[in-house]
Design goal:
Elements lengths: L2 H16 L4 H8 L9 H4 L4 H8 L9 E4 L3 E10 L7 H9 L3 E5 L5 E7 L3 H5 L4 E6 L2 E4 L14 E4 L4 E3 L6 E6 L18 E6 L33 H8 L12 H10 L17 E6 L6 E3 H18 L1 E6 L1 E3 L9 H11 L3 E4 L26
Parallel strand pairs: 9-11, 9-13, 10-11, 13-15
Antiparallel strand pairs: 1-2, 2-4, 2-5, 3-4, 6-12, 6-14, 7-8
Helix pairs in contact: 9-10
Length: 379
């Protein structure tokens, strides 16, 4: 892990856990920094944490902001659009004109993943087809505990070491957006023979949603590498090749995704204590969006949600689980991850998300305003 990544993750976890913004970022606002006269409407389209970084006197050590050659501050952001053009042609061209790059165009939310000079963010926000600009914040794993009593016994009449009676999820697909799934774990099938992990895609293998995904150097400006992706499109085969993941026994080095998948669909009646999950015959779809340390990018999670939407009907994916969270300074109406899971819900997919790990202080006192994204999304 690089020094920059370590510093970024420390900043992210500190901000997420304590619910505060670095004091450094507040200085320019106290001194009268921020939008110029006449830009207030465009400025209001920026998420609060993006406003802080754009106006800060020094670039903070976070994953989505960096000073490049010449001392230019660049930021990686998600641009939410209300354009009637699904390809966002004009908006993509303007990002290039302003010295930025376009990494990805999404289906689940009409948005672009872009890099842009910080001093051009407000100018881009001034466009009538820009609804909101959010930073490409870090996402991170959230923890869960399997309770001894889940109520599953009320819908399953009996089971043995190899069979279940009653509702068991047979034929239903569950997509797990996480750190991966150990395909050959006994919970998901025999060590030799078919696994219930039907497909695995890795959105970190090529860094999908960011520069490396599209063959660019990090923080490279002046290119538009986004493409129309949907089943049957000219670019879909190439895209699928880049994210296909042939899992090994060490596929989930962090372990969180395997843990979550076992809660959802693990078949643990072969052992004592029995650790059977909720739907032990369901098919699983491994959508890797977190790395071996449990971290990822918002843009990768959005790309993973897109993949689930592409193949929901093909594989009868009825459930999508996101036991992860991103800090957010936005309402669910404009937060990119909230919009994306809302789209999945509208498509008939049951979306299960984490509430976050920050509902109480270290002493157990309640703390408000700490539900992470997409846990704050009503759907």
């Amino acid at each position: 892990m690089t020094t920059e990544e370590i510093s970024s993750r420390r900043w992210f976890l500190d901000t997420l856990g304590k619910g505060v913004v670095l004091a450094l970022l507040a200085i320019p606002m106290l001194l009268g920094g921020g939008p110029a006269k006449g830009q207030s409407t465009a400025w209001d389209k920026l998420a609060k944490d993006l406003q802080d970084v754009v106006s800060a006197p020094l670039t903070p050590s976070i994953s989505w902001a960096k000073d490049v050659v010449g001392g230019v501050r660049m930021v990686k952001v998600l641009v939410i659009s209300n354009s009637a053009d699904p390809d966002l042609v004009s908006l993509r061209a303007d990002v290039l004109t302003k010295g930025g790059s376009v990494y990805f165009r999404y289906t689940s939310v009409r948005a672009l993943s872009v890099m842009l000079p910080a001093n051009q963010v407000v100018n881009l926000a001034a466009r009538s087809d820009v609804q909101r600009i959010s930073p490409n914040r870090m996402t991170a794993r959230t923890f869960s505990t399997l309770e001894q009593t889940t109520g599953v016994s009320n819908v399953r009449s009996g089971k043995s070491n190899t069979a279940y009676a009653g509702f068991d999820g047979a034929g239903i697909g569950i997509a797990i957006l996480d750190s991966g799934i150990w395909k050959r774990h006994t919970h998901f099938g025999p060590k030799t023979g078919p696994s219930r992990v039907i497909r695995a895609v890795n959105f970190l293998r090529q860094g999908v949603g960011d520069a490396e995904a599209v063959g660019l150097k990090r923080w490279q400006a002046g290119v538009d590498a986004s493409a129309g992706l949907y089943p049957g499109s000219p670019t879909m085969a190439t895209y699928e090749d880049s994210i296909r993941w042939e899992q090994a026994f060490t596929a989930d080095k962090y372990g969180h995704g395997t843990h979550v998948a076992a809660i959802a669909a693990g078949a643990g009646a072969y052992q004592t204590l029995d650790t059977t999950g909720i739907a032990p015959k369901a098919n699983l779809f491994d959508v890797k969006v977190l790395d071996e340390n449990g971290f990822g990018q918002l843009s990768d999670v959005l790309a993973g949600i897109d993949w689930v939407l592409y193949y929901a009907k093909t594989y009868n994916i009825r459930v999508m689980n996101l036991s992860l969270a991103a800090d957010s300074t936005e309402t669910h109406l404009t937060d990119p991850l909230a919009i994306a899971v809302r789209s999945a819900t509208a498509a008939g997919i049951t979306v299960v998300v984490a509430g976050g790990n920050f509902g109480q202080t270290a002493t157990g006192a309640e703390r408000y305003g700490t539900i992470s994204s997409p846990g704050h999304e009503p759907s």
